[in-house]
Amino acid sequence: QVQLVESGGGLVQAGGSLRLSCAASGSIFSIYDMAWYRQAPGKQRELVASITGGGSTNYADSVKGRFTISRDNAKNTVYLQMNSLKPEDTADYYCNAELRGRYSGSREYWGQGTQVTVSS
């Protein structure tokens, strides 16, 4: 059984910072791409940032220069450092990982989500 568990969300004022973490646990053989998505009320889920196993990153235009995605492969963990937060960053943030389990093939997994609220 594989699961992704996010932490680090909360309430912050505009201009502030938060750091999200997502730890993968269970019978994992290898983790490939990891990513953060977000979904604001009434909107579709959107990609925020992604990182490959080799460390290549990709960001949504709306967060470039403000957010940084990183990963610790030894801890099976991906992070999202969010700086200069804006009210429009308010959303539920979801961790996503493509990984291969020890007893299963490769597939995509999602975390349960963590809420980020940015007040103006």
List its salient traits:
single chain; 120 residues; mainly beta; seven-stranded mixed beta sheet; four-stranded antiparallel beta sheet; 0% helix; elongated
Summarize the structure in words.
With 120 residues, this protein is an all-beta fold. It has strands at 2-7, 10-13, 18-26, 28-39, 46-51, 57-59, 67-72, 77-82, 91-101, 106-110, 114-119. Strands 2, 4, 5, 6, 9, 10 and 11 form a seven-stranded mixed beta sheet that branches. A hairpin with a 5-residue loop joins strand 5 (46-51) and strand 6. The protein is elongated, with a radius of gyration of 14 Å. The model has no long low-confidence stretch (mean pLDDT 96).
Shape: elongated
Strand content: over 45%
H-E order: EEEEEEEEEEE
Query: If you compute it from the alpha carbons, what radius of gyration comes out, rounded to the nearest whole angstrom?
Result: 14 Å
Number of strands: 11
- Give the mean pLDDT: 96
Distance between the termini: 41 Å
Total count of helical runs of at least 4 residues: 0
Largest sheet: 7 strands, mixed
Helix content: under 10%
Structural class: mainly beta
Ranges with pLDDT <50 over ≥5 residues?
A: none
